[in-house]
Amino acid sequence: LEARISSIGNNKSELETPALLIDLDLMNANIERMSAYFGGKHSTLRAHSKTHKSPYIAHKQISSGSRGVCVQKLGEAEVMVGSGVKDVLITNEVVDPRKLERLVALNNYADVKVAVDNLSVAKKISEIARIEGIKQGVLIEVDVRNRRCGRLPGRDTADFVKEIGNLSGIEFRGLMGYEGPFLDVTGFEARKSGASKLLGQLAETVEMVEKEGIHVEIVSAGSTGTYNIAGEYQGVTEVEAGSYVFMDSTYRKLDGLKFHCALTVLATVISRPIPERVIVDVGWKTIASELGPPEVKDVEGAKFYHQSEEHGLISVGSENRLSVGDKVELIPSHCCTTVNLHDNFYVTRKEKVEAIWPIAARGRSQ
Ligand SMILES: Cc1ncc(COP(=O)(O)O)c(C=O)c1O
Q1: Separation of 150 CA from ligand 1 center, angstroms?
Q2: Reported pTM
Q3: Phi, psi of 269, rounded to the nearest 5 degrees
Q4: What are phi and psi of 12, to 5 degrees?
């Protein structure tokens, strides 16, 4: 640890690798861009902290306008609440009774809401919350894509909301309808029309619930790919964008997303067996690959084409001068899962390491 701390103030190229780097100026610009977008809107950002798993970044987002944070897992919620975040939405179902006890207990320190789509789970939450003397806030997840968790849009959800209204340990706060990242829809207009259809299902469901005389305080939707579609959509109150803070090479392919790639994995060239092939010390264990290979930053003609656990293979032109011991930066194809492979962020400004931030909720998947 001491060796790592002593790297503060050094040039980033002196870091031992693989190392996960944040370019602070670029990340701050992303946070500011998002906050400028929501200035004066009817909706607000609730930044998804599953991307960075870091209280440092969560607090930066909150101080620039995010209404608390989203998390995907209870363990992440505990880390965020432990760091002083006061408003958390778990955008996922929690069902294990022991976890539900942890969830309810968190409400002693913060307003922690959870997604629900099942009556027996709702009853269990209510029972535990009553014993604790609190009301657990819930959002009903609506499956606007028919692919993941959630009640069906429309009548099914409206009936479910009425049913849980009888549970005294629960407070219905609203609906959540994550309409997906639309990563395969590059063009903005096509993305807008696809996402708007799904948001329309959510809006109709809100209307149906309100017709029953039940107030829907929160309507949560959206992602980085749809932040400025969900953020405009009538009735949506919160947008759950996460990746915008770092961006990645997959999101960068979408039109209209003017965020910067602020996250890279620093790698060392460990071999150059033939002039056309460079091998780096970054593979599956330090960079995510489920959305494809990373991009090599600022190396003309270099293409990352294959990886194994601890090796990355990059093709280069024979005139390329990279040699053993040199460092290169890789832009992940998926920032969120890459972050979860590392213990710390090395926070850099220009070429210098300015800070080291632990990734406190790394691996907190329970
Ligand atoms: C429930 C939920 N909300 C929001 C997001 C948006 O995240 P991002 O902005 O990183 O695409 C995701 C992504 O997986 C999600 O699962």
Answers
A1: 15
A2: 0.97
A3: -75, 120
A4: -60, -25
Residue 243 Cβ contacting ligand 1 at under 6 Å: yes
C-alpha 312 to ligand 1 mean position (Å):
28
Query: From the alpha carbon of 241, which atom of ligand 1 is closest?
Result: 9
What is the token pair recorded at 194?
């696809």
Ligand 1 geometric centre to CA of 50 (Å): 8
Q: What is the 3-state secondary structure (H, E, C) of 285-301?
A: CCCCCCCCCCEECCCCC
Cβ of 307 closer than 6 Å to ligand 1, yes or no, is no
Q: How many angstroms separate the CA atoms of 333 and 83, rounded?
A: 29
For the Cβ of 348 lying below 6 angstroms from any atom of ligand 1, the answer is no
In the chain, the amino acid numbered 274 is: I
Q: Name the residue among 47, 30, 80 with its Cα closest to residue 258.
A: 30
Phi-psi region of 286 (alpha: psi -120 to 50; beta: other; left: phi over 0): alpha
Distance separating alpha carbons of residues 113 and 175, to the nearest angstrom: 11
What pLDDT tens digit does each residue of the chain (366 aa) get?
Answer: 666 778 999 999 999 999 999 999 999 999 999 999 999 999 999 999 999 999 999 999 999 999 999 999 999 999 999 999 999 999 999 999 999 999 999 999 999 999 999 999 999 999 999 999 999 999 999 999 868 999 999 999 999 999 999 999 999 999 999 998 888 899 999 999 999 999 999 999 999 999 999 999 999 999 999 999 999 999 999 999 999 999 999 999 999 999 999 999 999 999 999 999 999 999 999 999 999 999 999 999 999 999 999 999 999 998 999 999 999 999 999 999 999 999 999 999 999 999 999 999 999 999
Q: Identity (one letter) of the amino acid at 2?
A: E
Any residues with CB less than 8 A from the CB of 193 and at least 6 apart, and which? none
Alpha-carbon distance of 137 to 279, in angstroms, equals 51
